[in-house]
Amino acid sequence: MSRAHAESVIKNIIGEIVRECAVRGHAVSDTLVAFMVKAVVLDPRNGFNVDRTLTKQDVQKLEELCLDKLMEKCSPSLDTIKMQVYFDMNYTSRREFLEEIHRVLESRLSTVSREITDSRVTTREELNALYHKIITYILLRSGIDSPTDSNAVQETTAALQSIFPPTELAAFMVLLKRDKEHQLKELTMIVTGIKLFNKASNKGEELNLHELMPAVLHETLPVTRKAIEDELNASQNLVWKYTALLEKQTDPESQSAECDVPLVLLKQALYNVKQHEVFLKILLADACLCAKHVDILQTELSSHMKLLKETVKSKMSAVPTAKVFPLFKALSQLWSGLQDEAELLNILNNIMLNLHPFLASQAKIFSEAYLDGLLGSCEVKTDRQRMNESPDERIDPAKMKPQEWFLPETIASFTELPLQYNGVCGYTLVNTDGLLLPGNPHIGVLKHKEKLYVFSSKEAALKFVASPDDFIEEVAEKAKRSPELIQLLKLHQQFSCVSPYSEIQPGESSVVKPIAKCESGTQTDIHPLETNIVKSYEWNEWELRKKAIKLADIRTKVTHSTQTGLSHMRRENVTQTWLPKHAASQCKRDGESNVPKPQVYLAGLRGQRDGRVVKTNLTRSVDE
After folding, report:
1. Secondary structure of the chain: what % helix, strand, coil (to 5)?
2. What integer pLDDT is reported at residue 212 of this predicted model?
3. Which whole-number Å values give the CA distances from 494 to 445, 451, 485, in the listed order?
């Protein structure tokens, strides 16, 4: 069967199962069905051969088994798989969550932004309408106030007019669309900073950061973390109770005949609450990181606000925009960071709430009172108590030379090691037929084939290290019979045919991708055959005659050389110059000239009231 044909067959199988589930009143996703198909094929009890092409009878049997699994009522195993599918499809990294938050914000503002950037106004009324749209855009993007609040609109209008009066709309309209969008974001940041500064200034000298924080952050920050912690404590208590009950049932010395609960259901319930605990720990770690980022942003917001107040107070006259605008932008960015943390906490809280329904089956089968009755006088130990039971049990690496062991004092960041089986003891899992006991890293961490293993006791470590490959294979067999363990114990690398749920695409390739490895090599010679090509060879006699005539003609020529602007630096040049010699020349001669001395006499200046003034020229020639 070709790969394309196999993909078509699997896509048809998945589609048929989804349709049949819908007919029976159950809506299932393609991702869940695709994983269930792979889980059914992997289970050796179903008798599928991964190396053989599926026949029509195999396809029919596969569909029936998958439908039976998906239609099970009150099944903790199915709930666990559904919980794993939901978490992997809805949870991602912090960076991708923030990118999604920004993407949603941009999509919400795209309509308003498009109306502003694409508008072509011609009248004063249209200009006023465009200015009000810009105010609405700023209110929506900043998130400080609602666009329906008249006081907020007035305050935003005043802040915008101080930096972008309506008279500048004409210059705004001639910009490119990209430049308009950039200026809108710049205006939003500056106006947001102005409003935050005004709000802080109205509070007086004592600044209360909690009053400046987004309102949604006040609600989600304390509530989300406490809710996750409470949910985690409840799940951990259930895990410890199920673990104690399974230990009691699997221990030959203390096994009670009164318990009529199948061990399979107990293990499925344990896997269900254990997976819930793992997911809650991830969410709690993210919530703690959000709280840490909120503290950092609050500190930076306080310092920037103080700096802005000092800058404004130190300037008795108008403050230069080059100094104050960057501070307004910084305030806006910190405010946006707090909004992002609030949205992220809200997402984490929603995921936590949506995980709880996947515990319904085990809660229905094992109510709290029923579970306590099964436990009786059995001691319920916490994970910390189990680790403190054997403080002196430690592996001596010197006595275990062939293997490599890690201890807390021999390796840095010991608590952050990527432990195999998600920190569960592999020996106990195999020896007790599926019991999940947390490993104690302080006993010693085994490094085997570039993977790290922990154990619940020193005895378990010594027995595991005697034949590690056999135990690893046994763990894989347990996971084939309980497919929820593949995700819970992080065995995706060991099961190359099963990808994480978030990577499964509907109709993806074949049911099982068998591992086929072989060593192969190819070599390509640059020149398989030796060649000896003379580029100057000519078979034409006339061409040879032409070359001979050219050579003979060259002998009668004189060689000339010319230096150009491109070649004057490509060869050595020598130039000799003579220094200037002392020389003197004189071209000056003495000469003189004389001019007459002017003399003028005015008569009648004195003694006469109305007398006339007579001017007499007494200048004499030079020759006289």
Report:
1. 60, 5, 35
2. 65
3. 20, 12, 12
Q: What is the average pLDDT value for the chain, to the nearest integer? A: 83
Is residue 75 within 8 Å of residue 271, measured between CB atoms?
no
Amino acid identity, position 490:
K
Give the pLDDT confidence of 560-582 residue by residue, as tens digits. 666 666 665 566 667 777 777 77
Residue 83 has pLDDT above 90, yes or no: yes
Transcribe 440-507 into DSSP letters. Answer: -GGG-EEEETTEEE--SSHHHHHHHHHSHHHHHHHHHHHHHHSTHHHHHTT-TTT-TT---GGG--TT
DSSP 424: B
Instruction: Kindly state the tokens that stand for 588.
Output: 């000056």
Q: How many Å separate Cα 251 from the centre of its chain?
A: 47
Q: Residue 73: exposed, middle, or buried by beta-carbon count in 10 A (0-12, 13-18, 19+)?
A: exposed
146 pLDDT more than 90: no
444-485 pLDDT, tens digit each: 889 888 889 999 888 888 899 889 999 999 999 999 889 899
Q: What are phi and psi of 453, to 5 degrees?
A: -125, 140
- pLDDT (0 to 100) of residue 184: 92
Please give the structure tokens belonging to residue 41. 């094929």
Question: What does the chain come to in residues?
Answer: 624
Confidence of residue 359 (pLDDT cuts 50, 70, 90): very high
Its pTM stands at 0.74
d(C-alpha 144, C-alpha 214), whole Å: 7
Calpha distance 464→443 (Å, rounded): 13
Of 437, 468, 432, the residue nearest 451 (C-alpha) = 468
Pairing of strands 451-453, 445-448: antiparallel
Residues 6+ apart with CB under 8 A from 473: none
Closest to 487 measured CA to CA, from 474, 473, 472, 503: 503
Half-sphere exposure (Cβ direction) of 620: Cα atoms closer than 13 Å = 3
Residue 504, pLDDT score: 47
Confidence check: pLDDT of 87 > 90: yes
Q: Which helix (H) or strand (E) holds 131?
A: helix 124-142
DSSP class of residue 334 equals H
Question: What is the model's pLDDT at position 351?
Answer: 94
How buried is residue 187: exposed, middle or buried, by Cβ count under 10 Å (0-12/13-18/19+)? buried
Task: Give the span between the Cα atoms of 390 and 439, in whole angstroms.
Answer: 12
Q: Calculate mean pLDDT across residues 505-529.
A: 51
Phi/psi for 452 (5° steps) reads -110, 130
Asked if 437 contacts 425 with a C-beta cutoff of 8 angstroms, the reply is: yes
Q: Burial code of 16-44, b = ≥16 C-beta within 10 A, e = fewer?
A: bbbebbeeeeeebbbbbbbbbbbbbbbbe
151: Cα separation from own chain's centroid: 38
Q: What is the pLDDT of residues 500-514, one digit of tens each?
A: 544 444 444 333 333
